[in-house]
Amino acid sequence: MWTYFFKILGWYGMVLLKFLFTPFLMILNPGGHETWTWAETILIVSTGAALWAFVFFHFGEFIFNWLSHHLNSKRRIFTRRNRWFVRIKKRWGLKGLLLISGVISVPIASVLCAKLYRHNSTALPKLIIAFFAWTVVLTSIAFGMKMIGKSL
Fold it and tell me: Positive or negative, the Cα torsion across 108, 86, 135, 53?
C-alpha cells in the first residue's frame, strides 16, 4: 500500500515538473513495470494538477499582494514586462490562458493566473477545470497511441 502511495506522490512531482508529458509517461510506460489504466491516469494527473494549481495560485496571489502593498509607489512605471502582461490580458483574457495552460506547465499557468486574475473569484476553479480537460485529452491521446501500438 505504501509503495502505491509513494508512486502516486512521484507522479504528482512529475505533474509539477512537466504536466504535458505525465499522462504519456504513465500510459505508455517506457521501460517501467507498472501499468496505469485510463481512469487512474486521469484521477492521478488531474488531482496532482489541481493540488499544484491551488498551491501556486495562492502563493502567487500572496506574493503579488505583498509586493503591491510594500512597493506602493505613487507613480506607476510601465516597463516592457508590464506592457506584455497588459497586452496578453487584453488580447486573450482568461480563456486564452486556460487554453495554453497545459502547454506552459502548472506552476507558470497558476502564477500567471494569480498575477492577472487574482481578484477574479472564478479564475482558480476555471484553471483547475482547464487542467482536468487537458488531462482527459492528453490521457486519451496516450491511451490511443498505446492501443495503436498493441494492434501493430
Answer: positive
